[in-house]
Design brief:
Largest sheet: 7 strands, mixed
Helix content: 25-40%
Structural class: alpha/beta
Bound molecules: guanosine-5'-triphosphate, magnesium ion
Oligomer: single chain
Length: 211
């Protein structure tokens, strides 16, 4: 996939105010500071598209980015949305906003008709965290399809990243029968970019063939 254009569109405080659901959409979510905005920048190829910050809790709204891509030079343009969601689990954010499955996120994830896939970001430097597992249980209960992206892989040795990935999947097997797709990423090193974009490309194709 070649990204031809990526632009910030709008930040919405609730589902009702999101842009019309007229194209396939992909949402990125995970703990505060896990690297959502950095990953969106890596995918778009634009360093400053989404705001990156050392201060957790930066992203508080549903942020839409409009994307245009082609499969080959000169090929037809495909339009889709990338969405940066607020991180969960940040202690300094008010209690009501902090719940893993806050009202805004729940309404968006369960009600957004054009949402094709949720990318759940997991920090590859850590052993399995309860809050991430809880979030995934909620996704499963709502039958929302997702892919796991392990982030910041440049910060640890590959063996450590693999060990953390395996441990996380092992935890998932305690409450679900099948394992989700996983991709190891690093926004710093552009790792996993082609894999994520290929996946989005395949889902875009399926979406536009069905309409
Ligand atoms: P919130 O919006 O606050 O929830 O955070 P976020 O998940 O959007 O994280 P963000 O992209 O702002 O990154 C948080 C911090 O991690 C920043 O200091 C980034 O530079 C750093 N970071 C993100 N991705 C990577 C990565 O792949 N490698 C390294 N080394 N650092 C990263
Ligand atoms: Mg962010």
């Amino acid at each position: 996939m070649l990204i031809r254009k990526s632009n910030y569109k709008i930040s919405s405080p609730e589902l009702r105010l999101c842009p019309p659901p007229d194209r396939p959409e992909y949402a990125f979510i995970g703990r505060s500071n896990v690297g959502k905005s950095s990953l969106i920048n890596m995918l778009s190829g634009r360093k400053h598209l989404a705001k990156v910050s050392g201060t957790p809790g930066k992203t508080q709204l549903i942020n839409h980015y409009e994307m245009e891509s082609t499969e080959r030079a000169g090929g037809p343009l495909t339009r889709w949305y990338l969405v940066d969601l607020p991180g969960y689990g940040y202690a300094k954010v008010a209690q009501q906003k902090r719940t893993v499955w806050g009202t805004m996120i729940r309404d968006y994830l369960t009600g957004r008709q054009n949402l094709q896939q949720v990318f759940v970001l997991i920090d590859s430097r850590h052993t399995p965290q309860k809050i991430d597992l809880e979030f995934i249980q909620n996704l499963d209960q709502a039958a929302i399809p997702f892919t796991l992206l392990f982030t910041k892989a440049d910060k640890e040795k590959p063996a450590v990243v693999q060990r953390h990935e395996a441990a996380f999947l092992q935890e998932l097997l305690t409450f679900r029968q099948f394992l989700p797709r996983t991709i190891i990423t690093s926004a710093e090193k552009n790792m996993g970019r082609d894999e994520v974009l290929d996946l989005i490309s395949a889902m875009n194709k399926a979406y536009y063939e069905a309409v």
